[in-house]
Task: structure prediction
Amino acid sequence: MMFLRRHAGLVPASTDQQAIALEPLDRRSPHGGPRHKAGVTWGILIALMLIASPAFGQQTSLADVQLRDPAKEAQARALMATIRCVECQGQSVGDSDAAIAGSMRALIRERIQAGETPGHVRAWLIERYGDYITYDPPMSAVTWPLWLAPVVLLIAGAAIARSSFRKRRQG
Result:
C-alpha cells in the first residue's frame, strides 16, 4: 500500500497560486540518497554543533588570551612569573592551572591593558592578598628573618670552612 504525503509547491499549469500536490511517501530517490537535501543539511548542522559544543562552554576571558600589544603582554607575563598562586603555593600564577590562577592572570592582563604599570598591579595584588603572594616579599618587621637568614648562613658557613682549613694546616 502506498502512502501519500502533502507537499507544498507550485503545481504545473497553475494560475499563479501555490497548491498542495500529493506525492508518494517514498523517502529515497532512485539513486539511494535522501529525497531532499534538507535532511543532509540538518545532519551536517547537528554534527557541527556537536563538534563545536565544547567551544561554547569555554569562557573567553583574558586569562589565556594574549594581549594585542606585545610590550604589554611581555609586562604581564613578567609580572605573572613573580606572583605566587594562592591555591598551588609552589607555582607562579603564569604556570598554574588552578581556576584562581586563571582569574588572577585575567586581572593582571585587564589592568595592564587598561594602562596600569606592573608596579601598581603588583602593589594592588599585595594589598589584596598579602605579602605571601609575591616570591620577593618586601622588607618588613615580619620578613626581616627571611632576608637576613641567607647572609647569616653564608657567614656561618665561611667561618666553619675557615676553621676547618686552619685545623688541617696546623695538624
